[in-house]
Inverse folding.
């Protein structure tokens, strides 16, 4: 009789254990389904087009909030994101282009930048010169895609202001 009761206890405990394990497994699966398997982060590396498609001077790319400058075969890219609170700055043409030394390299400057939100101003190399902006505009690395020759910007790779990409 005792043996039968032990067996019943054992089977009951086994049943409860299995039920708890099943519920825990289901709860885990439900929670897991709330976490996506894919990353929705925007890619940091973006193809911008063939170098020859860029005009000499400046082109604004609104999707990347980026200014790409071309002088002959030489390119550089400056962020249009204000370093104060992130508004998009506007480029304003200078009446006369100037050549300035930036990071030890000459740079032909054709524009300056103004932020419409709180009035920050930046010189043509992105240096913050007035208003609440705490830092210069970022410069990003440009390269040429090996597969199709397009210009590529890496928006996660900030470079110094002596950076220039020369394409052949
Ligand atoms: S966001 Fe540009 S000055 Fe405030």
């Amino acid at each position: 009789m005792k043996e039968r009761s032990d067996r019943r206890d054992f089977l009951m405990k086994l049943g409860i254990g299995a039920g708890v394990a099943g519920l825990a497994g289901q709860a885990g699966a439900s929670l897991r389904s709330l976490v996506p398997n894919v990353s929705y982060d925007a890619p940091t590396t973006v193809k911008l087009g063939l170098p020859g498609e860029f005009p000499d001077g400046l082109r604004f790319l609104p999707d990347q909030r980026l200014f790409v400058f071309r002088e002959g075969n030489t390119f550089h890219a400056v962020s249009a994101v204000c370093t104060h609170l992130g508004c998009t700055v506007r480029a304003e043409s200078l009446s006369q282009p100037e050549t300035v030394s930036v990071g030890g390299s000459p740079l032909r400057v054709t524009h300056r930048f103004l932020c419409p939100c709180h009035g920050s101003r930046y010189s043509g190399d992105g240096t913050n010169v007035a208003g609440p902006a705490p830092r210069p505009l970022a410069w990003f690395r440009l390269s040429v895609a090996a597969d199709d020759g397009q210009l590529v910007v890496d928006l996660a790779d900030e470079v110094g202001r002596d950076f220039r990409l020369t394409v052949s």
User: Anything to note?
Assistant: Residues 82, 84-87, 115, 117-120, 131-133 surround FE2/S2 (inorganic) cluster (CB under 6 Å). Residues 2-33 form the longest helix (32 residues). The two ends are 94 Å apart (CA to CA).
